Amino acid sequence: MKHEWRKREKEYYMPKEKPVLVDIPEFKFFMIKGKGNPNREEFSQAVGVLYSLAYAIRMMPKNGYTPERYFEYTVYPLEGIWDLTEEGKNQETLNKDEFIYTIMIRQPNFVTEELVAKAMEIVKKKKPHPLLDKIIFETIKDGLSVQMLHIGSFDDESKTFSIMKEYCEKNNLIIKTKAHREIYLSDLRKTETEKLKTVLRYCVKEI
């Protein structure tokens, strides 16, 4: 049976429009780090490179190679960890040019360093790109987190963050860092801004 994250991992990817406390385990990711406005072409190029690698892994059996412990699955959604430069934090209004980000796509547990090297070879032959050399393959554990579904424009996320912070205060939780994670459930190319669905997540600890 095909592993579909929307159905099999709802606790991590499908929260409701209210804060919830969840313990996120270790996951493997393809990642690229960057700085600047996400509306620029460089960001779009980075997203494309991540998906090229993710689909290279996903499609290996159809291209004649089946990795050990492979199972059929739906490619995971794009995610991002977002923060601001020190200069950006000191500005009264949000300056998107001061964003620091790590964008990523989760990989199944069967993916190894050797498999990543094979996927890199495939992509470099079929769709070479200089950003491939900036790809990081790493395991991340968010651990105890508060997350919530945000519907609408990214520019309105502050409203959802306020609700999440209030939840933390009422439940004796401290947000560990100003950086936050976003998980993009919608196809930005096909979805109207007011209908965009994004999971927002803070890593927290109990007081």
TrEMBL record:
Gene3D superfamilies in the record: Regulatory factor, effector binding domain
Ranges for domain GyrI-like small molecule binding: 18-198
Originating species: Clostridium gasigenes
Protein name: GyrI-like small molecule binding domain-containing protein
Superkingdom in the source lineage: Bacteria
InterPro entries: GyrI-like, GyrI-like_CCH_Lin2189-like, Reg_factor_effector_dom_sf
Spans traversing the lipid bilayer: none
